[in-house]
Every structure is written in structure tokens, then in C-alpha cells.
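Discussion board: Methods & Data

I've been asked by a reviewer to show the raw model output for two of the constructs in my manuscript, not just the figures. I'm not sure how much to include, so I'm pasting the format here to get opinions. Each protein appears as its amino acid sequence followed by a line of C-alpha cells. Is this the kind of thing reviewers expect to see in a supplement, or should I convert it first? Here is construct A:
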Amino acid sequence: FNLLRGDWPGSDKDREKAFETLEALRERIDVGLQWPCESPMSFTIPFASASPVIDGKINEAAWHRALTINGSYPISSTNKTPDGSVWKMMWNNEYLFVGVFFPDTDIIAEKPPYKGDSMEIFIMPSKRMKIYWEIVIGCDGELFDGFHCNNRYGGFASNFAIEMKGLKFKSFRQKNGFSVEVAVPFAELPNYMLGN
């Protein structure tokens, strides 16, 4: 917008490219402008009385008291799809635990893992700081993680050289799908040093 309004310097070619980019995003922008919810859904994630063994299986007793969501929400939709997926979350004083099961009869592993069947989570501990982790774990246990920072103009900068220290994860293939367990260390989350 700034480039098209003339607030930023640029050539006619730069402005043409900016216009093409906005046209390509028009449908997604319209969905956002017409979003039916004024605020995002809120969930309470329970404290884990026992830590799960990170072996890729989410059927052990430690997961029974976790926040559990059955199904998923497709991108740009508020309607949950009963696709058979199961998402679980809980925490203790050291880790945020995430476990998921995806039904899948045609499992495809790729490198990087986000190109194949995988679990992807984004964790932004503070909206004020606008810094977040992206964690992608493939069906074969391949890891891709990135450290990102949003800016006030809607863009972001990424640093893929930084790896999350102490991250524990494991994938497990089954006949009817695959599951992933992750233990995200709170000490690696931005804003942790402030006691949040």
C-alpha cells in the first residue's frame, strides 16, 4: 500500500509488481475483512500431572487430561472439519507438550518436511514482541524450525540458522496414519526471561 500510495520510493515496475501481489491476495484479504469472529477462540491448556514419554504415540495415560480437539479448522474457516485428526496440548514447568494424530492412508515424507505430510505449529508467546517459532515435524521425524519476527507493515523476517535448543520430538507411523509428539522448552520462547 505504501508503495502504491507513493509513500515509499519505487519505480513504475515496482508499483506494478506491488499491485499484482495485492490482486493475488485479494480473496484472502476479503476473507479477513469479513471474518465473523471479533476475537479468536480461547482455550485453557491444563497442567500435566505427569510428563509423556516422547515416543510419537499419544495414547499413554499422561495425555488423558490434556486439552483435546478432535478435527481441524481449514485455513480461512471457522468451521471445524471432522477429519479424524486429534490434537492434544498440556504443559508443565519446563515444556509445552503437543501431540497429534493424523489419519492418512497415503503418507508422504518430503524434505523439507512441510512439503509432505507433517505437523506444523506456530508459537508466539507475546503479541507485543511479535517474535515466534515455527516448528514442522514430518511423518518420518524430519525437523524444520525457524525463528521469525513480524514487522508493523505485515511482513516478517526469518532466521533459519537458529535452532530451538532442548526441543524433543518424535513421529510414529501407523497403518491408518501417523502421530507426532513434541515437547517445546519454555526457556526457548521469547518473553520467557520476563517471567511470562
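Construct B, same format:
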Amino acid sequence: RFVLEDAADRHPAARDLLSAAEWLDGTLASAREAVVGHHRSLAHPRVAERLRSLPVERLRDAAPGLRTAGLREAGYGSVWDIVAASVGDLDALDGVGPQRAAALSEAATRVARAVNDSVQLRLTEPAASGLVAALVRLADVTRAARPLKQLVARVLPALRADLPATGPLTGRLAWWFALVFSEVALAVSSRLRAAS
């Protein structure tokens, strides 16, 4: 990126490539976030249901030696109850200090991650249509971005070595940058916009 910014100061075509690369990064990040968001919204109710069914004593599976005595009596009977509680809430319970509260919260988080990782979603469910659409868009954007990533992987090392020594870009080098950067940026941008 530093090399592209340096080159952008020297030639408009490099600026165009930098702009396309930033747009590409943003588009890929947005597509990934959409997949994660859809997955989370579908998985969350299932994860919560499973955590509600796990007795609080199961936290000892994630943290051997962790004391769970008194939690059930205080209204924290499931792993979900601990996940939903703040460390301060737990610390306020009789017999639970700050260290135990933090350990309980950490164990609950570990169990919640394990349950989340084990949740399987059926993409054929009507509720999964948003996730399927987000996955298709991510696949399309990733596929369309591959040529630019491959070009950058091949050209960037040479640019890093050569650009600082070039000074202002003139003549054939400027022509080469203009041609390569403009064609690649235009091709990739149009493919990505078509995939969006």
C-alpha cells in the first residue's frame, strides 16, 4: 500500500489502481461481514437454546476445578445465564469474588464458542435465503478479485524495489504504469460491480 501511495503521488494511473484496490478491500470486507452477520442471526437462537439447556455445572468441562456451588441458588442455573451476566453481576453474588467471576465468564464464553462452532445450519431452510445470497455474493466477489490479487502478488515486489529509484515517472515507465494499472483496474472494477 505504501508503494502504491508513493506511486499515486507520481502518476494518476497508480492513483486509479490504489483507488480500485481500496474499493476491492472494502467490497470483500463487506461481503465477508454480510456472511458472518447472516450466519450469526440464524445461529444465535439455536446457540442460545442449547446454552439454556446446559446446566451451569457444565462450565467445569471448560475450566476444570471451577467452583459452581451457589450459582443455581442465586438464579444462574444454566450456562446461558452466565453468558448473559456481566462479570460485575457475578462478582456481586455472595461467595463470588472478582477472580471467580472472571473465570466463570471466561468458561461460559468458551462453552458458547464451542456450541456456536457446532451449530449446523440447513441452507435449504427459507430463513437461510439471506445467508445463501451473501455466500453467493462473496464467492462472486472473491472470484472477480482473483486477477487483481494475482497481479499485485507478481508486480508489487518489483514495484517495491524499483519505484523509489525511479523519481518522477516519465516516458516508457509512465506509459507502462498507465496501461497496466488502467486496464487491470477497469477490468477488475467492472467484474466486481457486475458481481455485486
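Answer (T.O., handling editor elsewhere):
This is acceptable in a supplement if you add a one-line summary per construct. For B, something like: The helical segments are 2-10, 12-53, 59-62, 79-84, 87-91, 98-118, 129-166, 171-195.
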